[in-house]
């Protein structure tokens, strides 16, 4: 296994699996922030300290237990900027780690459901990604990995404050639980502007597809907890689960209402977007995300039957700037990316349609 394997696979293998409520919930993520006691936080440590932390983690992973999965250790300082961008677009590393110039690393599982970042904002960040609504399952896996780290490293912990982290907002459990949701119904019925402030009042936060500071492209929203201190990990996950289940119900109701009141307009929107994807020659990233969202909604509502929902997951990743350039073998100007994006989408949808016809 090598870096190229993770770069060349468009979609992480776990993304091809169906999970609970996967028509609305794309993925569930658990992230645990941890720091080593003997080193300063990332805002203060030296390049030499950063290098020592990476070496310590690498040495311990030589004896990583097989029952927790096959893992690959990759140093980010040896990666090209484009390679890091591709890993970021696949949600395997954070934008922060992709941009950092100091010594860092990432440990990835074979199917990419586990990503352990070294020297991101914190010394160690354990991330577990599962398809659909599986927060409890992701938490259980993250806790197994956390137990292993606890057995191997002296982690920064205070009896009153909990785990100590670089950013005060993560102190306590160090837990960030989040779900990625596709919410076109609530956007089209203009309910999201009302729902987002209500979510914020509950101590949760709504962000875009790549987290803090990113845009909600393709009607995809990331909902996560803000409070990490004063609640147990289980309580944090239960609170988020309760809210997500309510949003699922609201999204389903919004979709039902659109079908009842605006069926022909909705069907027209879906097929116009499909036409753009199938025949367009120049497609910008925002337009691609919007059209892919419309087509995914059309698949979920039964308008479109010969295209798999998973193909839309693949295209959402494949059409990002980093992936386009990775597949093209080098840098592309914006207009070249838009042309290449359109070509890739056309070819992938044509192949999917042909495969579907052969199966009939």
Q: Could you list some keywords that capture this structure?
A:
single chain, 360 residues, alpha+beta, eight-stranded antiparallel β-sheet, two-stranded antiparallel ribbon, 12 helices, 10 strands, globular
Summarize the structure in words.
- Helix content is 49%, strand content 15%.
- By secondary structure, it is of the alpha+beta class.
- The strands form two sheets. Strands 2-3-4-5-1-8-10-9 form an eight-stranded antiparallel sheet, with helices on one face.
- Strand 4 and strand 5 form a beta hairpin.
- Helix 3 packs across helix 11, helix 8 packs across helix 9 and helix 9 packs antiparallel against helix 10.
- The relative contact order is 0.12.
Could you give a quick summary of the protein structure above?
A motif (RDXXRA motif of the pArg binding pocket involved in allosteric regulation) lies at residues 337-342. The chain has 12 helices and 10 strands.
E-strand count: 10
Q: How many individual helices?
A: 12
Give the overall average pLDDT.
90
Order of helices and strands: HEHEHHEEEHEEEHHEEHHHHH
Give the end-to-end Cα distance, rounded to a whole number of Å.
37 Å
Shape designation: globular
Q: What is the strand content? A: 15-25%
Strand order of the largest sheet: 2-3-4-5-1-8-10-9
* Residues in helices, as a percent range: 40-55%
The largest sheet, given as strand count, sense and whether it forms a barrel, is: 8 strands, antiparallel
Backbone CA Rg: 21 Å
Ranges with pLDDT <50 over ≥5 residues?
Answer: none
User: What structural class results from the helix and strand content?
Assistant: alpha+beta
GO molecular function, one term: protein arginine kinase activity
InterPro entries: Arg_Kinase, ATP-guanido_PTrfase, ATP-guanido_PTrfase_AS, ATP-guanido_PTrfase_cat, Gln_synth/guanido_kin_cat_dom
Protein name: Protein-arginine kinase
Pfam families: ATP-gua_Ptrans
């Amino acid at each position: 296994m090598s870096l190229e394997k993770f770069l060349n696979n468009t979609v992480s293998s776990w993304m091809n699996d169906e999970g609970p409520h996967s028509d609305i919930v794309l993925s569930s993520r658990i992230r645990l922030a941890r720091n080593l006691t003997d080193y300063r936080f990332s805002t203060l440590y030296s390049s030499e300290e950063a290098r020592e932390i990476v070496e310590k983690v690498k040495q311990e992973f030589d004896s990583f237990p097989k029952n927790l999965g096959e893992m690959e250790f990759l140093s980010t300082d040896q990666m090209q900027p484009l390679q890091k961008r591709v890993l970021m677009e696949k949600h395997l590393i954070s934008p922060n780690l992709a941009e950092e110039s100091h010594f860092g690393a990432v440990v990835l599982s074979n199917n990419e459901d586990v990503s352990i970042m070294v020297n991101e904002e914190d010394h160690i960040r354990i991330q577990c990604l599962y398809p659909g609504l599986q927060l409890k399952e992701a938490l259980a896996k993250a806790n197994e990995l956390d137990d292993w780290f606890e057995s191997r490293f002296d982690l920064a912990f205070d009896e009153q404050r909990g785990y100590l982290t670089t950013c005060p907002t993560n102190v306590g459990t160090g837990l960030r639980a989040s779900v990625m949701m596709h919410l076109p119904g609530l956007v089209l019925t203009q309910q999201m502007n009302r729902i987002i402030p209500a979510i914020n009042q509950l101590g949760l936060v709504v962000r875009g597809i790549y987290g803090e500071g990113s845009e909600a492209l393709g009607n995809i929203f990331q909902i996560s907890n803000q409070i990490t201190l004063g609640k147990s990990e289980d309580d944090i996950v239960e609170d988020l689960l309760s809210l997500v289940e309510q949003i699922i119900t609201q999204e389903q109701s919004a979709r039902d209402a659109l079908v009842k009141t605006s069926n022909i307009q909705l069907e027209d929107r879906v097929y116009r977007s499909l036409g753009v994807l199938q025949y367009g020659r120049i497609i910008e990233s925002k337009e691609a995300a919007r059209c892919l969202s419309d087509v995914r909604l059309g698949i979920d509502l039964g308008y479109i039957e010969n295209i798999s929902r998973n193909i839309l997951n693949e295209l959402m990743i494949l059409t990002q700037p980093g992936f386009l350039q990775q597949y093209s073998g080098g840098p592309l100007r914006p207009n070249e990316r838009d042309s290449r994006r359109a070509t890739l989408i056309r070819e992938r949808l044509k192949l999917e349609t042909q495969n579907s016809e052969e199966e009939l």
